[in-house]
């Protein structure tokens, strides 16, 4: 049996197929989050926070000016107007970063810059735009009430306040809040290291010549790229020959640098050439099964070595491997980081063309999502990697649906 079947009239397989959900749930049940480690902010970016980050001080930590202008008392500018500006002596100038202890006296103004500490006693800041911008004396033509253009200590966050909760995947805005609160490093789940292995005597490296009977390896590059896109470090170990001993030896060699192993090829139902299956069966900790999906029916997972490194074995056909990665491996990568949010976004879109799907299996058809419409692409074979290269979405057709018509609403996974 292969997973290349694209016939829409295929009857449900007689043997029991495992549902997509059940297979994914079993994979996830065997994965523990990587232990947290303290990393500097640049290193932590994109990773999942392992502990709440709170403010240790008020934010801002001191009263300061929101604008370039003049710190004054409200009573001294109460009479200011366009017709009758108020003039005050300018007795000092405070720049951002100036830590001097300034205080305001009635009847005077202090020139102050944005972010500079407010002088003791000052009630408000008159923006420079409301003045003649004088340096020894300033003429103010607009009044303001206490608190104007003043940023109060703690108006952004109070000490102890939660800034970024554990479980957040750190994006630039989170990094900003963490840095502004003075934390130079944070505990995060480390970037998972994924080792990608491709097997097959037919495989050649892209960039080298091939002869008929050989193909260029696309899976190992694709899966490594997909793993990186999902936030991992990815290592490729490509072109492993179809010999179970070599497959097993390579896998064991790679365990040292793997938090997750992903293989492609060698797990279909074709017997002696299914070397990954043959190699890993000896270990007894792997489950191989058929999943009720198309493409991607032959799937396997388990753990390996003393460290029980999780391993997921994907089918060899490139489209099958790609779809299987998005459906099973991406969430597994999330689980390594205690993040259950790595699944693909789901949207509903209107079909522009009819489609067919096998009974009893969930189809993931390559499509082009444009606005609110989805167009199934021509060439849905699981070897048709050129079609995959044009897709930006997967149309999910439920197990019990065998055809859909234009205008129907389809469930669509948006590809990253
Ligand atoms: P297998 O599961 O090993 O029987 O492979 C199924 C199909 O996928 C065959 O047509 C293989 O040539 C193809 N295939 C396997 N591995 C790769 C790879 N790394 N890159 C591209 N195609 C592959
Ligand atoms: Mg093979």
Shape: elongated
* Regions with little confidence, pLDDT below 50 for 5+ residues: 1-13
End-to-end C-alpha gap: 30 Å
Secondary structure: number of strands? 28
Class from helix and strand fractions: alpha/beta
Radius of gyration: 31 Å
Q: In which range does the helix fraction lie? A: 10-25%
Task: Specify the number of helices.
Answer: 9
Question: What brief labels describe this structure?
Answer:
elongated, six-stranded mixed sheet, alpha/beta, 28 strands, disordered N terminus
Entry summary:
This protein is α/β, with parallel strands linked by helices and 416 residues long. It contains nine helices and 28 strands.
Walk me through this protein's architecture.
19% of the residues lie in helices and 30% in strands. It contains nine helices and 28 strands. The chain has a six-stranded mixed beta sheet, with helices on both faces. Strands 8-5-7-6-9 form a five-stranded mixed beta sheet. Strands 22-25-24-26-28 form a five-stranded mixed β-barrel. The N terminus is likely disordered. The site of adenosine monophosphate has 19 residues, from helix 5.
């Amino acid at each position: 049996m292969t997973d290349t079947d694209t016939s829409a009239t295929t009857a449900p397989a007689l043997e029991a197929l495992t549902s997509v959900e059940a297979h994914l749930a079993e994979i996830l049940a065997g994965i523990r989050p990587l232990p947290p480690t303290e990393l500097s902010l640049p290193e932590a970016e994109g990773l999942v926070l392992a502990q709440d980050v709170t403010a240790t001080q008020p934010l801002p930590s001191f009263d300061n000016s929101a604008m370039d202008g003049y710190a004054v008392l409200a009573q001294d500018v109460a009479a200011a107007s366009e017709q009758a500006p108020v003039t005050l002596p300018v007795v000092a100038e405070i720049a951002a970063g100036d830590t001097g202890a300034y205080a305001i006296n009635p009847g005077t103004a202090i020139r102050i810059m944005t972010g500079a500490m407010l002088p003791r006693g000052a009630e408000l800041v008159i923006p420079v735009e409301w003045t003649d911008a004088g340096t020894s004396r300033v003429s103010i033509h607009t009044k303001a009430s206490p608190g104007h253009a003043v940023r109060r200590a703690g108006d952004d966050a109070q000490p102890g306040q939660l800034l970024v909760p554990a479980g957040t995947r750190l994006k630039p805005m989170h990094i900003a809040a963490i840095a502004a609160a003075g934390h130079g490093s944070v505990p995060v789940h480390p970037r998972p290291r994924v080792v990608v292995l491709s097997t097959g005597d037919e495989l050649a490296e892209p960039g080298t010549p091939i002869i008929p009977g050989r193909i260029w390896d696309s899976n190992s590059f694709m899966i490594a790229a997909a793993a990186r896109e999902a936030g991992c470090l990815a290592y490729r170990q490509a072109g492993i020959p179809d010999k179970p001993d070599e497959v097993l030896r390579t896998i064991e060699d790679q365990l040292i640098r793997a938090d997750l192993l992903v293989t492609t090829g060698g797990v279909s139902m074709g017997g002696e050439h299914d070397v990954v299956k043959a190699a890993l069966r000896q270990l007894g900790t792997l489950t191989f099964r058929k999943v009720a999906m198309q493409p991607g029916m032959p799937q396997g997972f388990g753990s390996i070595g003393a460290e029980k490194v999780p391993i997921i074995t994907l089918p060899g056909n490139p489209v099958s491997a790609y779809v299987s990665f998005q459906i099973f491996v991406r969430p597994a990568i999330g689980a390594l980081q205690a993040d259950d949010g790595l699944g693909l976004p789901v949207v509903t879109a209107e079909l522009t063309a009819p489609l067919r799907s096998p009974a009893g299996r969930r189809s993931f058809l390559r499509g082009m999502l444009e606005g609110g419409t989805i167009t199934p692409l021509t060439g849905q074979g699981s070897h048709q990697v050129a079609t995959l290269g044009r897709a930006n979405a997967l149309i999910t057709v439920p197990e019990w649906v065998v055809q859909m018509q234009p205008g129907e609403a389809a469930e669509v996974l948006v590809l990253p």
